[in-house]
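Final report, Chapter 2: Outcomes

The project's central promise was a pipeline that accepts a single protein chain and returns its three-dimensional structure in a standardized token representation, suitable for archiving and comparison. That pipeline is now operational. To close this chapter, we reproduce one record exactly as it appears in the project archive, with the input sequence first and the structure output second.
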Amino acid sequence: MTGNHRNSSLTRRRALAVTGGTVAAGGLAVGGYQSAFADTTDTTSTTETTATDACMTLMSSVTEGPYYLDGALVRKDITEGKSGVPLTLRLTVVDATDGCTPVKGAAVEIWHCDAWGYYSGYTTANPGGSAPAESEDGSTANDNTYLRGYQIANANGVVKFETIFPGWYTPRTCHIHVKVHTGGEKEDGTYEGGKVNYTGQLFFDDTIAEEIFALEPYSRHSGSYTALDDDMVYDGGGAAGGLLTLKAVHKADPSKGYKGALALAIDPDAENTGAGSGGGGEGGTPPSGAPSGEPPSGTPSESASPSASASS
């Protein structure tokens, strides 16, 4: 597949991902839109749907990949002015060892690339294909912190992020990295202590990704995009493998954005850092400019970040 993205028919995977229909996938039952995007303030209904619709076997942990940085900020909006199609991400953390009860207080951490395939902290790494330099996007983003953040799960185990639809880099498909932490606490604007219970990646239906990548600013990154079935990390397991349930904000206009949802079933007693664990080794090292995994010097503190005051 090249930058001139193909027109695909409605596949079974797309139908399941977009409609939120119930499907068995590695022990997972995915609920419909009402449970996936229910208001987090509705304690009773959300808890009930979590217990009945989101009970599953443990999510399979995979590598954290080469672009992880410590010290992400606790905040809801992680965009920092990065341009792209809006994405509201709603994740529910449940305890797979205890009837899939919500894990209150779990810290969910996500990070992903921008519309052209660049990660904050590693903006000189080549995303593959032909793309403008990261500095050409004209945003006010801090090059060490954009598109990274934590949220703390409420009583229903729910966190919500405001971000953009990620782009891609060679040789990976479109994805978002995620870690679930427990036992720590918010300190100096970030999350400290505790342990990592789950390290995984979230994925997007190919047909939806192709629609997005035909839009600005994504369309300025051309080249060979890796489809889900060819990705070295995605295991084909549907929601149990990290495939998000997606709902368009406006069906006729994908540029208006999407809502994405998934339940993450973890073992709060387990520990998994994601370093060297399964799913394709390094999780897709870029063709050149591979980072060392160490935070770059001068990584800003909360007070130094232009987006440190973003809502939590």
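Archive annotation: Confidence is low (pLDDT under 50) at residues 1-54, 276-312.
This record, like all others produced under the grant, will remain available to the consortium after the project formally closes.
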